[in-house]
Design goal:
binds manganese (II) ion, single chain, binds L-Erythrulose, 272 residues
């Protein structure tokens, strides 16, 4: 198995330090926050390749592809189109995509916003197909987004879009809140599972919450013949789930969570 971690969980830490940390802990890659000004493609490639790290995927900025306001939607579309180009420049084959984090109800009607989202993702899929890239739609829990909360919803949505460039991203932290059955959700995504995020039930390191990673997650990924990486997206304990920069010790705490996660994942992998 290949392991990565999301860059955003390390807050404002400069990329060379993030790369040093991840490679030092034995990670194989990174999910890079999709900010091409902060991470210019050529320099970023050098830093990451010097540390033997691949760009497994790109995390989007918090834009709103389903907003009923056409200007907000267009800004989101333009951002994602540019993100695809940036992915191609970086040599990454995958971007993540999800509902606007923090918008937990429809402004228009739910069905209308789902329809708007599918139109936008269809348009993005054409660019992705032309560039030979893929888009992984992530299921978020209901406290972060009103769109695509479960593997079943992602499955129906991806089927409706009907592009081979569009697949599914499951995240154990969100799954723990939304799914009836963790292994069943992985089976539902099946061959369209493009990417897998892990954090424990409290968004801390793997092994520091109560998700049955060995029996219900890793075994099922194996049985589903998942070939993508596992990307760690845990945060330090405390309020505000969207940042890890929570206090004077946030960096040491996040380091500890990221270290614990890969140790636990490798231990569980070895036990199988
Ligand atoms: C993004 O991967 C995610 O899981 C969201 O919860 C970020 O806020
Ligand atoms: Mn995630």
């Amino acid at each position: 198995m290949r392991y990565g971690a999301c860059s955003w969980i390390l807050g404002d830490t400069p990329l060379p330090e993030v790369a040093e940390l991840l490679s030092g802990l034995g990670y194989d890659g990174i999910e890079l926050f999709g900010d091409w000004e902060r991470y210019p493609a050529r320099r970023t490639q050098h830093i990451l390749s010097d540390h033997g790290l691949s760009v497994f995927s790109l995390t989007p900025e918090n834009v709103d592809l389903a907003h009923p306001g056409s200007e907000i939607r267009k800004a989101a579309r333009d951002y994602y189109l540019r993100l695809l180009d940036y992915a191609a420049e970086l040599g990454s084959s995958l971007i993540s995509c999800h509902g606007a984090v923090g918008r937990v109800s429809a402004i228009a009607r739910q069905a209308q916003e789902e329809h708007l989202l599918s139109e936008e993702v269809s348009a993005l899929s054409e660019r992705a197909e032309a560039l030979g890239l893929r888009i992984a739609l992530e299921g978020l829990n209901r406290y972060e987004s009103h769109l695509l909360n479960t593997a079943g919803a992602l499955r129906s949505f991806a089927d409706e879009v009907g592009s081979s460039a569009v697949g599914i991203l499951l995240d154990t932290y969100h799954m723990n809140i939304e799914e009836e059955n963790l292994a069943g959700a992985i089976r539902t995504a099946g061959r369209d599972l493009f990417l897998f995020h892990v954090a424990d039930s409290n968004r801390r390191a793997v092994g520091r919450g109560h998700i049955p990673f060995f029996s219900d997650v890793l075994r099922e990924l194996d049985q589903t013949a998942y070939t993508g990486p596992i990307v760690v997206e845990c945060t330090a304990p405390g309020p505000d789930p969207f940042t890890t920069m929570k206090g004077p010790d946030w960096y040491e705490q996040t380091f500890d969570e990221v270290q614990k996660s890969i140790r636990e994942l490798r231990r569980l992998e070895g036990a199988s």
